Amino acid sequence: MLGGVYADPVVLPPHEAAPREKKAVRHPRRAPAALVVLLGEVCAIGAPRVAAAQAGAEDGGVAPPNEAPTTAAAEPPPELLLEPLMRAGPEEPPPSNVSFLQYGVAFTAEVPTAPGPICATTKAPCILGTGGGVAIRVGYRSAGHLYVGAAYEVTKQDPNNLYRIGLLQQARAEGRYYLGSAREAYPYGALGLGLTGYGNEWAVDTWGPSGSLGLGIEVQIAQRTVVGAALAYRLAYLSAFVDTSGAARDGGVAQIMGLDLVLEQRDSTGRPEGRASAPRK
């Protein structure tokens, strides 16, 4: 109002009106992708526990808090895994109505108990002392009690420095008669006939026929493998000869004790003999 006179209000054009302040619009924030994945995993882990708790509540019980969720892919308990091993027994012995090819090796010791005339001279020491070596053998084992085979044995004997290497070589045919029908252990008697030679290294300075009698035992450690031990008494005739020192050695019979530690294998010939016997106990 100016001087007591009211003035009309001044109206500005619409385009000249004072601009109004714009209010900021807040948009809802989206959760990070990692947080979404984490929440999904937590729900996946907790869902089986919730389901188990609801099932326990329906049955009138409460599921234990630490019980692991049971799923179709859960591993079987250890006792189920060990059940086939617990039910598996020892290996069955070979069939008692089948013959076998039996072969193997032996660590052997030869101890002359009475060297005989070749050590009778007083001009030189005894040329035939104690020794040891290996033997190889192969033979036929029948379905019954018999074994027939051949063996070659070479042992290094103590020549009392008269030979560089004193080798005692034996080639013989062997027979065994097994006693009893035990499942794992078989005692047997043995007989051998063959030739024996002795000399420096692989040379043969003296030789002659030989024979042996023995006792042994054979133990089955697998379906096709046996181990054993045998003790044999041997008689070997050694011919006269002259040794490297020029001393004459008379011919005669030497008495020798032999010990074998045997490892042999059996291969079935596939030929059943007679009727199958009762299972060995």
List the helices and strands in order: HHEEEEEEEEEE
- What fraction, in percent, of the residue positions are helical? 10-25%
CATH hierarchy class name of the largest domain: Mainly Beta
Q: Into how many domains do the coordinates divide?
A: 2
Shape: elongated
Low-confidence stretches: 1-6, 275-281
Tally of contiguous helical segments = 2
Structural class: mainly beta
Strand content: 35-45%
* pLDDT averaged residue by residue: 78
Largest sheet: 8 strands, antiparallel, barrel
Q: Any guess at the CATH architecture of the largest domain?
A: Beta Barrel
Rounded to an integer in angstroms, the radius of gyration calculated over CA atoms is 48 Å
For the biggest β-sheet, the strand order reads 1-2-3-4-5-6-7-10
Give a count of the beta strands, DSSP E runs of length 2 or more: 10
Amino-to-carboxy terminus distance: 136 Å
Return the CATH topology of the largest domain: Porin
If you had to describe this structure to a student in words, what would you say it looks like?
There is one protein chain. This protein has 281 residues and is mainly beta. It has 2 domains: 33 residues, no CATH class; 175 residues, Porin (Beta Barrel), CATH 2.40.160. It has 2 helices and 10 strands, in the order ααββββββββββ. It has an 8-stranded antiparallel barrel with strand order 1-2-3-4-5-6-7-10. The protein is elongated and about 105 Å long.
